[in-house]
Amino acid sequence: MIPSFYDGSSGVPAPRKRAGYFCTYTPVEILAAAGFAPLRLEPPQAAGDELPPYLAANLCSFARACLTGGVRGVWGKLDLIVVAGSCTAMVHLYSAWRATLPSPPVYFLDVPRRSGEEAATFFAAQLRRLASVLGLPSGSAGEVLLREAVERYVRQRILLRELCGPLSCAGAVYRRAVLRAAERAPAELPTAPPNECYPPAPAGPAIFLTGCVVPDDIVSLVEECGLRVAMDDSCAGSRPLQVGDEAAPSGEEDLFFNLARRYLNRAPCPRMTLESRLAYLRSIIKSIPCAGMIYFALKFCDFAMHDFPQVRAVFEEAGLPAIFLQGEYGDAATGQMRTRVEAFAELLHRGWRS
Amino acid sequence: MAILNLQEALAVKIKDGLKTRVLRSPWTYRLLRGAVRHSHFPLETSRQMALYALQQTERAYTGVAPVVWTSAFFPTEIPHALGLTVFSPEVAAALLASLGLAEECLDTAERFWYDRDLCSFHRCVLGATLKGYFPSPTALLATGHICDSAPKTFEAVGRLTGARTFFLDVPRERTPEAEAYIAAQLRDIARELAAVCRLTWHPERLVHAVEASERFRNAAVAANLARVGDVPWRGSDMLNFVYLLFVGQGDPQAAAVYTDLAREAARQPAREKTRKPRLLWLHLKPYFDPSLLNYLEEERGAAIVFEEMNYVYWPSLAGVSPWRGLARKTLAHHAYHTTTERAAVLVSLARCYRADGVVMFAHQGCRATTGALHLLGRLVQQEGLPFLALQGDCIDRRDYAPEQLRTRLDAFLEMLEDRTVV
Ligand code: SF4
Ligand code: SF4
Questions:
Q1: Ligand 1 atom closest to Cα of A235?
Q2: DSSP per-residue codes, A186-206
Q3: Pair A81, A105: CB distance under 8 Å
Q4: How far apart are CA A98 and CA A104, in angstroms?
Q5: From CA A247, how far away is CA A257, in angstroms rounded?
Q6: Fewest C-beta atoms under 10 Å: which of A352, B14, B50, B272?
Q7: Residue B418 touches chain A, beta carbons under 8 Å
Q8: In angstroms, rounded to a whole number, what is the distance separating the alpha carbons of residues B39 and B42?
Q9: Tens of pLDDT, residues B3-62
Q10: Which residue in B308, B266, B261, B270 sits closest to B41, CA to CA?
């Protein structure tokens, strides 16, 4: 179910080439400016086992599912793949992808795991190289295209934050569908929130959902247990929207540096430093009223597993109970997990009613 | 085995569990030094290394100089240039496992929500920190290359102990910008580390540390070269030298120990020609159970002719500025890039040491070394080298199945023997 303004009927011509990427630290602005339609590659949860089995069973199942998706051709014809070096699993995916799939070309993008001036300088150099490899013209011609793409995405994120932010009355499953549609048609911007009746969020207590890649199954499960996902802090949720809006005014800051800085300072995922993640979560707890936190880690995602004890402590300091869920990408919402979420929901409901 | 005598002496001192009071007492070190001097060691240099390790441990626990914890592969030239005591918690975790003390640390970490799927080296470090077993750090130096877990563990330790954590972010690709980025971070870390330790940063001391590191490298290259000539050392003993690789680079004393190792290697008679099969060993070993490698090297008579961990992967530091040199070294690790690159290095090592096959002790929590295991195995096998992955854990013995590992080793060795006969 996708809102009508993203039905693809606005007359904007379909972009030419398709560039797939996995990690939301990939600046889509550069892909778009270079004439590609950026496509975030999310393997279907039912993609099944990886073929051939080049990656070990003790590696993150999202990375394994990405390879399966590629082998099975679930994304159709792509002209380019950008693999960001987000973590060890993605670097192994890059190796395995190249060994398995002769086309399309795969581009490796180094993304720092910290923010700050030095990291942004380094990342800006990576982005310049990416732009040049993709054929973005150098000089002012390229700058105009990039500036135009940057501004378009700033506008889009502002609107989407409004539509899909914590105050949205729509359910989280639906909000994800909106975000996916927006990713696929970035040029088709609504000028105002549509007058549609959203499938509403459950009326129960609000929770903060965080972790690494949180599969849709988990979001559905949480909503089925009567909890409202006020903040869907994951790659398929609101995290990619939390890129700062302060795009460089003309001539003031190098565009690549500006983009690099904004991406590295966005809402951090577990691949970034624990310190930055805790600081972000602390700030957000204050601004979004929630009754508790659900933390989901994919099995073998070291970053997410390592962060949990400290993230939990931050929520508990704020008086918010937390639970830790762990699962495989393709089979996340198990019966046992449902029982745990139901028990947690019951706990929150009791507190909420009283 | 000398290490066992040393362990016995240590075990006597810590019978009722590890007491940090014991580790802070000079008497402990006097006793242990005596044990080291009077024990039999497979290599004379192993004795020297044990004495060096004792000295460093004593310094760490008695607070002679500020203690910094460094994660594996962090360029230790920087803390050595400041005269700090370098403590490797990962090596300490291996020691705890060899003393049978890892499990209580693992349990503690798990009680504090550290998941059992995480690398047991780091779970053990976190548990030991929570139990107060390790010397208090003044600062923590973690690098993000090779291991995703290390910076996270160090940041958590920083929160538990109040020590400042420094994180070195290492890009994957070897580009001039990557070098500049690492060099800039190292410069900042050095300056701020000096301030945290209330010391003055003297650039010329880094030059001396880098010179010591270069001597260390030259000695390691010489020792490895001598081993091409078939030095009859056991791979399980050589794996212990990882300690020096992790803590000693930049320390003149460690460079001297490694120089002696190279000399000792040059003096060794060649291995008996009949000893077969010859193996290249990847990653580490189960520290809680020496019997697996004893079985391989003694009972089955196989020879570990080289270990990936002892490979000198980094270029000479001479001729470039110290910061650039350290940045290049950090970027140089062959297992930090593509699996194809790692496989190519392994194949060339196997050829150089005339290995008949490649065995990986696949430590289950290690995404870096085992995550693309099947691809690695295929690439190595394509070059005509049989490959065996032994699934296990270096620290956590709770799911250890030695019989299964032996059976798999036996089958692999038999296959190699058949190939050799043909
Ligand atoms: S979920 Fe974790 S391990 Fe998997 S790709 Fe993301 S950061 Fe990497
Ligand atoms: S074994 Fe692997 S995961 Fe564990 S500390 Fe070493 S590099 Fe990290």
A1: 6
A2: TT---SS-------BPPSS-E
A3: yes
A4: 9
A5: 10
A6: B272
A7: no
A8: 10
A9: 444 555 555 555 445 567 788 888 889 999 999 999 999 999 999 999 999 999 999 999
A10: B261
Question: How many C-alpha atoms does B177 have within 13 Å on its Cβ side?
Answer: 18
Q: Which-ligand-closest: CA of B363?
A: 2
- CA distances (Å), origin A237, targets A50, A173, A279, B398: 25, 9, 19, 38
Q: What is the pLDDT of residues B357-407, one digit of tens each?
A: 999 999 999 999 999 999 999 999 999 999 999 999 999 999 999 999 999
Q: How many angstroms separate the CA atoms of B396 and B115, rounded?
A: 13
Encode pLDDT of B58-82 as tens digits: 999 998 899 999 999 999 999 999 9
- Site to probe by mutation for ligand 1, drawn from A113, A303, A305, A328 as the one with most ligand atoms within 8 Å of Cβ, is A303
Distances (CA, A) of A227 to A292, A343, B24: 10, 12, 53
- Within a 10 A sphere around the Cβ of A278, how many other Cβ atoms? 18
Residue B356 beta carbon below 6 angstroms from any ligand 2 atom: no
Helix (H, G, I), strand (E, B) or coil at B347: helix
Does any CB of chain A come closer than 8 Å to the CB of residue B367? yes
Reduce the DSSP state of residue A312 to 3 states and report it: helix
How far from A98 is each of A10, A67, A93, A101, A127, CA to CA, in Å?
37, 10, 8, 6, 22
3-state SS, one letter per residue, for B16-46 = CCCCHHHHHCHHHHHHHHHHHHHCCCCCHHH
Please tell me the distance between residue B121's alpha carbon and the centre of ligand 2 in angstroms. 7
Helix axis angle for B322-331 and B203-228, nearest 10°, is: 40
What value of ipTM does the predicted structure carry? 0.94
